[in-house]
Amino acid sequence: MLGFPSFEIFSQLLVNGILFGAMYGIAAIGLSLIFGTMRIIFLAQGTIIVLAAYACFWLFKLLGIDPYLSIIIVIPGCLLFGSGLYQAFFRRIAKAGPGPSLLIAFGLLVLLENLMTVLWSADTRAIRTSYTAFGLKFLGLRISFTRLMAFIMAIASALGVSLFLKKTLMGKAVRAASENIESSTLVGITPHWVNTVTFAIGIGLTGFAGISTATTYGFDPYFGFVFTLKALIAVALGGMGNILGALLGGIFLGMLESMVSFQMSAGWADAISYGVFLLVLLFRPEGLFVRSSGKSGDGGMSAPVAAASQTVTEPSAIAKKARIAFLCLLLLALCVVPFVLDPDTNYIVYLLFLAFIYMALAQGWNLMAGYTGEISLGTGAFFGLGAYVVAIGWTHGIFGFFSPLGFILAGLAAAILAIAIGIPLLSRLRGDYFALGTLGLAEILKILFIQGGSFTGGPVGITLPSSAYSSFRPYYFIALFFALFAAAVTYFMVKSRIGLALIAVRDDETAAAAYGVNPLKYKILAFATGAFIAGICGSLQAYYLFHISPDGFFSFEWTLYPILMCMLGGVGTITGPIIGAFFLTIMFEMAKIWLPEVHPMFSGILIIIVVLFLPTGLVRLRLKGFFKK
């Protein structure tokens, strides 16, 4: 529905957007506070909001406590929960950089989502009271009572946090620590307690958002991740670490979505929101509601262990020959597997197939994060794009089943997208801002393919003719080839002048530029190469499943699992992603068999354990001196 609405409709849309955006604002305030002080992109914020919503729901359902009266129970509970989370998980890695914190947050997201599913099922819940449908009339506008209460709580949250930061001694300590943690310790500020208080307040605010959610929407355990993405957009719009800006960013986002939903459709609202998000990161990285400093964003996020000092001992000639012989024997054994075991019935063959895909994906991500220091959260976007390229090309007769042209076009499409996105992002953004810029890429593509109509299959996706399937053996060998190809590309790039340039950019971009290295050129090269690998992996997965859907192929798991595998094996190494992918693929798949009800929780726990106890990866343990860089 295009065309400018009447003044009455426009006013109602504006009011609805403001009230709706207040929900994002509450979530964004806590997220902004945590990020501004500790540089943590807390992906589990929305999931904890859902947890608070469940607490409000059960207090109302079991004890008859009014949702708004439950504030006196839910808020203190969230404050204690936030303090406990920091002490248990984030204190240990406070100095390790934001990469491990990001993964722990994702592990908590997976753990809590599935814990809530096991405890309370995935059914949608909502609180219905006598005032749920009540609305106020003002100047001809209808104002929902529950959304008005959410708006009031958002304003109260912003004012409360602002007064705390400006008027209290602890608040001033938090502000000082967020400006310069090293200097603040010289005047007696203890970073540990500052971080504990900050995290407790940031999570405590989820109580308000949870109550607002429970009284306004239907919710389920998986409602939280999208809420987190919207809160991150609000934080970026308002300015990282800016409390009032986070609230205004949420309200602005709500108004934007309200207008777009009316003019186009609700489906396009998210895509437009993410598009505006990218534009703001590019041209106003400091946010829309703060005075411009004229500087591009530089959050300083580096790869989890990429910058760690390393002492590499060159193996002897005998050790090199032994390693080569071992790798050749291992490759020979892998080639024999589908002939010894029935590839169509034996689960081990499928397990290795999946491990090969993850090895390739992990190598592609590692090339960017491990050797340039920039963390990309867009692997899932390139994976899904590659899948759709072969699906559309095959169904339209451009190429046949398992055609090399299909794989190449899938990889090229992903690489071209990486270049198109990478040039503007990497030329202006670094660190946290670049990671955020790639975070919403998969969601944008997902929405575009959902809205693509018959060409992309819409939300249902594309079903390929399964009659083309004859044996699983070709899938196995192509996946093995892709894993070898990704490892070989990484090896030859790292061992060449390109690798020296990448590492120079990672270690000190300014010094590298002074010596004639073009940082943008090499970052784009690494980014596009990783995207090419992700694209061809997505195309193989599409051929295997014969059904390509937006939800399945643009899932955030295709982004986070390769990161976790690199973390486990060792970021910035060549053998690390191989070891990590092999080990975790087996662990995750075995958990599905032996722990069918709770295996997703197991995955979340495993992510947290890996980050806490193996922060530098298995490779750097140098077991018996065999696994080396």
How would you describe the overall organization of this protein?
This protein is mainly alpha-helical and 629 residues long. It is built from 26 helices and four strands. The strands form two sheets. Strands 1-2 form a two-stranded antiparallel sheet. A two-stranded antiparallel ribbon has the order 3-4. α10 packs parallel to α12 and α20 packs across α22.
Task: Give the topology, please.
Elements: H1 7-38, H2 45-63, H3 71-90, H4 98-120, E1 135-138, E2 141-144, H5 145-167, H6 169-179, H7 181-185, H8 191-204, H9 206-216, H10 224-238, H11 243-263, H12 266-283, H13 317-340, H14 347-372, H15 379-395, H16 404-428, H17 432-439, H18 441-450, E3 462-463, H19 473-494, H20 497-507, H21 509-514, H22 519-545, E4 547-548, H23 550-553, H24 557-569, H25 575-594, H26 599-613
Antiparallel strand pairs: 1-2, 3-4
Quickly give the structural class.
mainly alpha
Question: In DSSP terms, counting alpha (H) and pi (I) runs of 4 or more, how many helices?
Answer: 26
What is the arithmetic mean of pLDDT?
83
Number of strands: 4
Q: How much of the sequence is in beta strands?
A: under 5%
The H/E string reads HHHHEEHHHHHHHHHHHHHHEHHHHEHHHH
Radius of gyration (CA) equals 25 Å
Strands side by side in the biggest sheet: 1-2
First-residue to last-residue Cα separation: 58 Å
Counted up, domains total 2
How helix-rich are the residues, as a percent range? 55-70%
Which residue ranges are poorly predicted, with pLDDT under 50 across at least 5 consecutive positions?
Answer: 293-314, 623-629
Largest sheet: 2 strands, antiparallel
